[in-house]
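User: Is it possible to get a 3D structure for a protein together with its bound compound? The compound here is flavin-adenine dinucleotide. I've pasted both below.
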Amino acid sequence: MADLDVVVVGAGFAGIYAVHALRSAGLTVRAFEAGSGIGGTWFWNCYPGARCDVESKDYSYSFSPELEQEWSWSERYPAQPEVLRYLNHVAGRFGLWPYIQLNTRVTAAEWDGERSEWTVTTDDGASRTARFCVMAVGCLSAYQVPSLPGLETFAGPWYHTSRWPREGVDFTGQRVGLIGTGSTGIQVAPEIAAAAAHLYVFQRTANFAVPNRNRAVDPSWEREFKADYRSYRKQAQESFLGVPITGTGRPALAEPPADIQRNLMERWRAGGGMPFLGAYTDVLVDRAANDIVAEFMRDRIRETVSDAAVAELLCPTAYPVGAKRLCQSDDYFAMFNLPNVTLVDIRSAPVSSVYAGGLRTADSVYELDALVFATGFDAISGALNRIGIRGVGGVPLTEKWAAGPRSYLGMAAAGFPNMFIVTGPGSPSVFSNMVLSIEQHVEWIRDCVAYLGSHGYSTVEAKPSAEDAWMAHVTEVAYSTLFPLADSWYVGANIPGKPRVFTPYLGGVGPYRARCDEVAAAGYEGFVLD
Ligand SMILES: Cc1cc2nc3c(=O)[nH]c(=O)nc-3n(C[C@H](O)[C@H](O)[C@H](O)COP(=O)(O)OP(=O)(O)OC[C@H]3O[C@@H](n4cnc5c(N)ncnc54)[C@H](O)[C@@H]3O)c2cc1C
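Assistant: Yes, that's possible. Here is the predicted structure of the complex:
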C-alpha cells in the first residue's frame, strides 16, 4: 500500500488549495515545497514593486465564503508582502501547516505500473509512494538567467527578480543595469531608480503598459461589494478571463473613431489591463482593430515622456498589443524623465559581454556596480521538465514533451497515469485570473479522485487520442487570434532552443470549465479508468 494517497508538489496558490481540498475529501496528503516558506510566486518574487495586476477582489480564493468575508485587502492591486501574508493566513486558518514540508525539492517522480503508484524522491534523499501526484509547480516558477558571456567575471552583485534577497537590496549611490522590460522589469525599474545614482534600462523589446490607478480599498465600497460576493464569483467563473469585465460587446472596426478614442480614454483613466483590452471584441483577433488600440497606447507614451527620441524607443511596434502579457504600471514611462535614468536600445546594439566593471554592447561600454535580471521564466513546462518525471515504461516527461508540452485539458498527460498538473499546457492558466483557474483545476482533480474511489477504479490516464484532439483545439483557437504573432514566453520564445508551441488555452475560462464538467459528467470521457 502506498504511503500516501496524494503527493502535492509546490505550495503556492495551487499547492495550498490542493492540500486543503484533497484533505477535506478524506485523503492523506503531503506537499513538498522547495522554498523555505509557502506562497510560490509571492514567496520568491519579493523584489521592490512586485504586485499583482489582477484586482485583489478577483485575485483571491473563492472556495470559502467565510474567508472572503473575513479578509480585507488594503489596495486594489496589493503588493507582494500582502499577498504572501494572505496565503500564510489561509494555511493557518485551514490548518494546513502539518501537511506541507518546506525546504524540500522533489527531484524525481516515477510511475510503478505494477503497484499503480508513484515513487516521489526529494533532495533530502527520502522517497515516498503515493497513489496520485498533483504537480502544483507553477507556470512561472522556473526562473531564467540569460547566458551572457563574462557574467562570472562581474565584480559587483547581480540579482534575478525571482530570487531577490529577502533582506532587500540597498542601491543607494550605485550605477545599476536592468535587463528585462516585461511585467516585472516595468514594476521594479521605478523602485531602483528612486534609490540608485543611475539606472540603465537595457531594452530589447519595448512593451505596452496600461496604468493601474492603484488605490486604497474604500471600506464602504468593500462592504457593499462583499454583500454580493457570491454572485460576483459566479460571474467570474462563467467569464472569459476569470474576471467579470464589461466590454462594449462590439468590434472596434464598427465604431466611429471618435467614440473609440473616448471609450479607450475612459478605460485608460480607470486603469487595469483586462478592461482595457476587453473594450472591443476584435482587438485580439483583427490586426486593424489592434493597431487602433496600439496607437492609442503609443500616444500616451509620447505625451508622458518628454524626450521625443526616448519616447519613440519606448513605443512598442514589434507585436500586436495583448499578444504578450500586457504590463501594468503607474510610473514606468514617467520614470524616463528623471535625470538618473537612461534607456539603452539593445535591439540595435546588443549586449556583447559582461566584464568586471560593467557591460559592453555592440557600440558602448556601461560602468555598473550592480546588475538586475528581470528576465522571466521557462514558462508552463519549465518547472515540470526540471523534475525527473517518468511515466509508463519509464518514459521521461521531457522525452514526451521534446517537441513541446502537451496534455489533455491542461491537467493530464497520456502515458502518465494518476498524475495531475495544475494549470498545465492546454489550460487557460496564464491567460486568466490564475487563482480562479487554479481552484477550478483543483476541484476537478479532487472530484476525479473521488469518482475513481467510489467506482472501484485505481488509475486514470488520458487517452493519446483525447490529448491530440485537445491540443489540436488549443492550437486552432490560438491561431484564430493575434497571439502567435509575438515572440513571447507564451510560445517559449524567451528560452533558447525551446520548441515554439502556443499552449495556453484561449477559448475562455467559462467555456473551458463547461468542457471539463462535460468530460466528468460523461464518466471522464477521453480517459482510461482502470
Ligand atoms: C511577479 C508575478 C506577478 C504575477 N501576478 C499575477 C496576477 O496579478 N494575476 C494572475 O492571475 N497571475 C499572476 N501571476 C502568475 C502567478 O504565478 C499565479 O497567479 C499563481 O501565483 C501561481 O500559483 P501556483 O501555485 O500555480 O504556482 P507558484 O506560485 O509558482 O508556486 C509553485 C511552487 O512550486 C514550487 N516548486 C516547483 N518545483 C518544485 C519541486 N520540484 N519541488 C518542490 N517544490 C517545487 C516552487 O518553489 C513554488 O513555490 C504573477 C506571476 C509573477 C511572477
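The pocket of flavin-adenine dinucleotide is lined by residues 9-15, 32-35, 40-41, 43, 45, 50, 52-54, 59, 105-106, 136-141, 184, 383, 387, 422-423, 433-434, 438 (CB under 6 Å). The first helix runs from residue 13 to 24.
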